[in-house]
Amino acid sequence: MKQAQGAAAMHELLALPQPPDAVFAAGDYCALGAMQMAMTQGLRIPQDLAICGFSNEKFTLVTQPSLTSVDQRCEEMGQASTNLLLEALDAGTSFIPRKVLMRPVLVLRDSSKRVMTSMSV
Question: How many Cα atoms within 13 Å fall on the side-chain side of residue 23?
Fold first, then answer.
């Protein structure tokens, strides 16, 4: 479903008078759909259109081209959530809620790597 939504959104973007030259999708499956739609329209990735997804799903390594993605560090997020839950259960009413900041990591792959042949000033 998300892949189809990405394709539909990309179709709409490509119909604009000035279509984008880069897309950041809300998820990797949406980015995959966008990538497939762009390619069916004859666009080359990343030369004509750069694409980035979000989640760093395993399949992003095997798409052609490989998909740039933001790794939200799901396993670490799950571990931190579990630790907070266990602390809250142990502490009972004396538990003091706190925020845990987890920094995402941009994983650059071929879908967003462009070679600049000339620069205009």
Answer: 32
Structure tokens at 17: 């008078």
DSSP the chain: -HHHHHHHHHHHHHTSSS--SEEE-SSHHHHHHHHHHHHHTT--TTTT-EEEEES--GGGGTSSSPPEEEE--HHHHHHHHHHHHHHHHHHGGG----------EEE--GGG---------
Q: Quick: pLDDT tens for 22-55.
A: 999 999 999 999 999 999 999 999 999 999 999 9
Residue 78 is encoded by which pair of tokens?
């799950």
Positive or negative, the Cα torsion across 112, 67, 52, 109?
Answer: negative
**Which pTM value belongs to this model?**
0.82
